[in-house]
Amino acid sequence: MRKTTKFIIFTAVIIILAFTSAIQCSEQTVLYQVSTLNALQEGVYDGAVSFESLAKHGDFGIGTFDGLDGEMVILNGSIYQVKADGKVYKPVATDKTPFADVVKFTPDISIHFVNGMDFAHLENKIIASLPSKNIPYAVMIKGQFSYVKTRSVKKQAKPYPRLAEAVKGQAIFEMKNIKGTIIGYVMPQNFSGINMPGLHLHFIDDTGTKGGHLLDCVTVDCRLELCSIYSLELDFPHSADFMKKDLSGDKLKELGKIEK
């Protein structure tokens, strides 16, 4: 009887611990998103959520700023704003974002690689490392890079142009022999319209003074970490611009040109 009782108690403890672990994992892997990518493509650039509110949902993410004023990098809870002048700024808590993706980053996959890879090979490496192609993943690549190419877009004025027009005035930045972190997401194909299927990555260097939307890179010695995401919380803007905008139609082909 005693052995049976002990076994039952032990089994119950294991089940409770497993259940608790699953709850914690679930809490750590909720992707919070402000607006939709097709809304951003159609020029919905007014800030919708403050950075004070955004910080409650995660310490890791990417996005943009009110009026499309630069590229956002959130790393370890710090928010960086890479503007079109090439400088990196720190927004105040009351500033707002029209589009962002944040998560509480807790990696469940970690891979170290030392062989130099260009962006195409890096993309293949990331995709090959995914346990499934049906859920999103937060991506962090930290280390040494021999080359990094990024971009940023200048702040837009009303009436806002569509994103395809706005990025035509983008500023390009090139960096050599630099240490930093690539952060972003891999979204599944069924996220089309909500977000960008495939990779969307930004970069910030270790000094917090250089960065932007990642266009190209060559790795030297880096570690790739992936965080599986099982839940999505989507916060729609309340603005009249968003409510009245026609967001129908397939914008995926155009998006491919925007991201390059």
What would you note in describing this structure?
The structure is a single chain. The protein is of the alpha+beta class and 260 residues long. It has a single domain, classed as 60s Ribosomal Protein L30, Chain: A (2-Layer Sandwich). Helices cover 24% and strands 38% of the residues. The chain contains 7 helices and 14 strands. The chain has a 7-stranded mixed sheet with strand order 6-5-4-3-8-1-14. Strands 9, 10, 11, 12 and 13 form a 5-stranded antiparallel sheet that branches. The chain has a two-stranded antiparallel sheet with strand order 2-7. It starts with a helix and ends with a helix. The relative contact order is 0.22. The N terminus is likely disordered.
Which helices and strands, and how do they pair?
Layout: H1 2-28, E1 30-34, H2 37-41, E2 49-50, H3 51-54, E3 60-64, E4 71-75, E5 78-82, E6 88-89, E7 96-97, E8 100-103, E9 109-113, H4 119-128, E10 137-152, H5 163-166, E11 171-187, E12 198-205, E13 211-228, E14 231-235, H6 240-244, H7 252-258
Parallel strand pairs: 1-14
Antiparallel strand pairs: 1-8, 2-7, 3-4, 3-8, 4-5, 5-6, 9-13, 10-11, 10-13, 11-12, 12-13
